[in-house]
Every structure is written in C-alpha cells, then in structure tokens.
Amino acid sequence: MGTGLRRFFGSFPSEVRPEFVNGESSDLIRDLCDNRMVVFGAQSGNPRMLEIMRGGHSVEDVRKACRVLIERGFESVVDFIVGLPGESIDEMNESAAFMEELGEMGVHLHVHTFMPLPGSPWAALAPTPIPHAIRRRMERLIAKGSLFGQWAQQEKLVSEVYLE
C-alpha cells in the first residue's frame, strides 16, 4: 500500500479472547496484520476459578489457542492472575501447573497479582495470599525465560493493604 502504516491486532490494547482463536482467525491476523505476537488472558488454569470469574473460556480454550498460534508462527503471551479471592492452594497449584505446561510450549506468561479494581464485582474482595511454593514455581519459570510481569511488586502493594 505504501502508506507506511502498520496494522496490529491481538496485542495491547486489542487482545483477543482465547475461545475465538482458531485456524481461520489466526490466518487472518497473519495475512492482514503486521504483528507476530498475540496476547490474550487465561487469568487462571483452574476451571472453578474461571467459572467464578465468568471468563467465558475454558482451560482447554487457552491450550488450543496457544497451539494454533504457535503452529502459525505467532508468539503467544498469556495473562494470568495469582492470588484470586477464595482461590485454594490446590487451585493455585493447578494454575501453576498449567503455566508450566504453557511455558514448555514456548508461551510467554504475563503474571499479575490480584488487585481489586474499584467498581468491579470483586472490588471489596481481598486477595488470597500466594504461598511460598507457588512463588517458587513462578520464579523457576522466570529463570527459564517463560514468565514476566510485576506480580511480586503487586503482591507487596496488596499485602500492605490486605494481608498484614
């Protein structure tokens, strides 16, 4: 076209939903856009937490989206939230195991600590403390180059308000 403009879709601020990632949509992004990175939110690797959050997608949707994107040469960046309100240690372990699985596939994991957003349905809910064992699993993913984000700083900020 010669306009010097570049088209991006599936990266901030227009991330995609994992349940809508398929071969056709990925091919369209590849053919019509300039980006080779697609960002979407898993938020959790636990089905119960996804249902409570009303995410509209499943763990399998996220897994499938990652596979499809990787097959088509995209870099996948998947958002997770740790310390969700009411999240059990077993649920956190399930989420951590899913992050490890995705990391092995070459997915980049962008991790956040739960921070209540004013006006949201969870605005008045406190985060669940992140156990040491979960923190260590995430640190191992950082060492492998799979995980990034400000989760540790966010955890400190949240703990000053809710957990101490």
Structure notes:
With 164 residues, this protein is of the alpha/beta class. The protein has a single domain (18-163), classed as Transcription Regulator spoIIAA. Helices cover 44% and strands 14% of the residues. It contains 6 helices and 4 strands; from the N terminus they run H-E-H-H-E-H-E-H-E-H. A 4-stranded parallel sheet has the order 1-2-3-4. Helix 4 (89-105) packs parallel to helix 5. The longest helix has 17 residues, at 89-105. It is globular, with a radius of gyration of 17 Å. The model has no long low-confidence stretch (mean pLDDT 89).
Determine the N-to-C terminus distance: 58 Å
CATH class: Alpha Beta
Count of the domains: 1
CATH topology: Transcription Regulator spoIIAA
Order of helices and strands: HEHHEHEHEH
Which stretches are low in confidence, meaning pLDDT under 50 for 5 or more residues running? none
Beta fraction of the residues? Answer: 5-15%
What's the number of helices? 6
Question: Biggest sheet, open or closed, and with what strands and sense?
Answer: 4 strands, parallel
Q: How much helix is in the residues?
A: 40-55%
Q: State the CATH architecture.
A: 2-Layer Sandwich
Task: Summarize model confidence as the mean pLDDT.
Answer: 89
Rg calculated over all Cα atoms:
17 Å
**Envelope shape:** globular
Structural class: alpha/beta
Q: What is the topology, as strand order, of the major beta sheet?
A: 1-2-3-4
What's the number of extended β-strand segments?
Answer: 4
